[in-house]
Amino acid sequence: METLLTVLLVITSISLIVVVLLQSGKSAGLSGAISGGAEQLFGKQKARGIDLVLNRLTIVLSVLFFVLTIAVAYFIG
Length: 77
Known about the structure:
Shape: elongated
Largest sheet: none
């Protein structure tokens, strides 16, 4: 059981890294870092197409990553 969870955790981790790296930047520069987060937080920028798929896949993989991490810590510890 521990081995299966560890293998799933590694696969999820690699997948999450790849999906995050495939996403396009929302804005460039320091001004985009300051104001870009607020615009995305309140929904002014709508993701479409592949960006939407990558965004949702990132959410799913991150939740799965946290669940698997807690499960591995529980079974090993």
